[in-house]
Amino acid sequence: MYLYEFIGTAVLVLMGDGVVANTILKGTKSHGGGWVVITFGWGLGVFLAVIIAGPHSGAHINPAVTFGFAFAGLMDWSLVPGYVFAQLLGGFFGASLVYFFFRQHFEITEDKAAKLAVFCTGPSIRSYRSNMFSEILGTFVLIFTIFHFVDPSFSTSTITDVQIGLGSIGALPVALVVVAIGMSLGGTTGYAINPARDLGPRLVHFLFPMSHKGSSDWSYSWVPVAGPVVGAFIAAMAFVLIGI
Question: What is the second-level CATH architecture of the domain 2-243?
Fold first, then answer.
């Protein structure tokens, strides 16, 4: 179960950070592909990760999803630490693969901000209040929509009997939700909406050697962690209250 959360998150970050690297690092054949390529690349990364991990762990592949299910009473809190640890470790491993895969392109890219953007998110306009709102709302849309992929007959009276996870709703709908969030709400902060896709890869940027490497921007790093957790909590409470 935890192993597949690790594998699923690693695949997600490999494909997601990979499409960013492929689009913005110097000398790649996809250089300059743009935002549409990036948003679809991340969505397809979700698609692959859910296919792989869904039957085994529910394919949360995102601490915000895990917390959202726990907040709503859809999973045992005792499982949360293991899921989150596996997701964070998977994010680190997936980003490490991206580093080695594109190492030659990192070496010839002089843009420090571009290198950081491969691994983690950052605000277009730095305003912690606005940046938090962006991450909270984007994650709310993700989690609230995921809850509504559940069988319409679901009710809080049967909540303990429901086996729920991203894998139970099918890979494609979730991928399309992520694409929609990226295209509509992603331009302000880069739509982390997932602490594991930001924190682990940011650590890779911090630890691994790279020429022309700038700061890992740790002063911002709490936003793509705290924002998604708060958004997941609000989505869970809204869904439970509406169900009542």
Answer: Up-down Bundle (1.20)
